[in-house]
Sequence to fold (205 residues):
Amino acid sequence: MARSDSVRNRARLIEAAREVFAERGFEATLDDIARHAGLGTGTAYRHFPNKRAIAAEVLTEATEQIVADARESLSVDDPWTALTGFFTRTGARQARDRGLYETLTGQGDQAEQERIWPEIIAAVTELFQRAQRAGVVRADAAPQDIAAIFALLGPAFAMSRTSGPDLWRRYLALVLDGLRATDRPELPAPPPPLADLRTILRAGK
Fold:
């Protein structure tokens, strides 16, 4: 096969993987991706040894965009708007991309999941702390709570695929209301330690 054909086929496989994983998540196979790309299974396996290899390549950009979103949110003057805007953008990405949600909740490549979440939490920490200093987020909330929040929203993302694309926004709004600094009792338990991150993420499976 000419090098130009190989490059084109790889690009077709990657684009097909984006579409297939977004719709079906990790239940999709490399054979499914090859069919979607209009290529033979042998061609797919010449480029990628398994579906996790192509998923890691496809979803790395998407997960890194979440970190970029968190950092970009710091440019928003209002701390509450900045924080909720980040949650909304990230939620929208996960609602339309089942593969991304499954990656973030530990159902994809474990190494990728363990790499990206500390980066996300580090980026979100500044958003949290700024909002807490402004008195708009309850003082007993912690940046690592974001992992549990998105894990818990998993059923809402799934429901949105069948019951209306914006249904998840309802439940995100309810969850975010719990973060507001208002006249409420303290939370009944402390936040989970970062060492328990994998357990937190798998709660949404």
Remarks:
- Residues 93 and 100 are 8 Å apart (CA to CA).
- The chain has a mean pLDDT of 84.
- Residues 110-133 form the longest helix (24 residues).
- Residues 1-49 form a domain with the Arc Repressor Mutant, subunit A fold (CATH 1.10.10.60).
